Structure to design on (279 residues):
């Protein structure tokens, strides 16, 4: 996990009784991205005493300033069905930028220019080692672990053209966290269940096995384009139930609380605020 205290930003390992400050013990690594290549070193700290209670620190996104966040559209079969589209032949990719993301507990901001702020609960995959043209059967060797993600979307701007990028990158409209769960702890991602709640009501629920392109296939495809690097994040898509396709539409609004829960990965929770109320 990544966090900050009065002493500044750091990264650590979460125990039941609190956080072990790995940054203080591993000063050779500037942040969690740099330490991802030394997962055994992080694991070796797990028996150390906790330095901070969880509630005493401010959480950051697990990878606070990832150089590459690649999101996948139309990848759950239930979501493809609700849109009326044919299943794509290849993954539909678009970038998301770090300043569009907040951590667990931080407010998601509805911008002044639109009320069409939609939820998209998703599974994020974090890369631990570089690779290019990675075979499907070796893809998981490049995975550090998994986290919850909310690909908050401004649908009005997403539909201005056939490029979805504007609606997916408004300032602080998405979230990522609360922490990264290593793949050995997470187990088989296809066994995980994803649930999005708005004000406590379930709005999306699906097994990750409903993905059209699974984690291994996405890594193999993306690595044909880029040499994936430690700290790269692949956000795998959202299930059916998005607000835009409900009748009437269901938008996130100021005062709401949105959560994304994935089995064994934790719960990402964010209040919603209006941009004009922050000025």
């Amino acid at each position: 996990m990544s966090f900050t205290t009065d002493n500044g930003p750091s990264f650590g390992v979460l125990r039941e009784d609190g956080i072990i400050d790995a940054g203080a013990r591993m000063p050779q690594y500037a942040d969690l991205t740099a330490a991802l290549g030394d997962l055994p070193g992080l694991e070796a700290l797990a028996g150390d005493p906790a330095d901070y209670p969880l509630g005493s620190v401010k959480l950051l996104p697990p990878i606070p300033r990832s150089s590459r966040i690649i999101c996948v559209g139309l990848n759950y079969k239930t979501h493809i069905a609700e849109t009326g589209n044919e299943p794509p032949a290849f993954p539909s990719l678009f970038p998301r930028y770090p300043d569009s993301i907040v951590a667990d507990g931080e407010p998601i901001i509805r911008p002044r220019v639109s009320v069409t702020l939609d939820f998209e609960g998703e599974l994020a995959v974090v890369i631990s080692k570089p690779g290019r043209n990675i075979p499907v059967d070796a893809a998981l060797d490049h995975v550090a672990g998994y986290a919850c993600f909310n690909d908050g979307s401004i649908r009005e701007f997403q539909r201005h053209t056939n490029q979805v990028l504007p609606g997916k990158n408004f300032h602080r409209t998405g979230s990522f966290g609360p922490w990264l769960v290593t793949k050995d702890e997470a187990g088989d991602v296809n066994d995980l269940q994803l649930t999005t709640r708005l004000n406590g009501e379930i709005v999306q629920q699906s097994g990750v096995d409903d993905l059209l392109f699974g984690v291994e296939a996405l890594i193999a495809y993306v690595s044909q384009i880029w040499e994936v690097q430690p700290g790269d994040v692949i956000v795998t898509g959202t299930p059916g139930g998005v607000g835009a396709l409900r009748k009437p539409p269901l938008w996130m609004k100021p005062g709401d609380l949105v959560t994304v829960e994935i089995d064994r990965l934790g719960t990402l929770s964010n209040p919603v605020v209006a941009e004009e109320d922050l000025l």
Observations:
- The mean pLDDT is 97.
- The chain is about 15% helix and 35% strand.
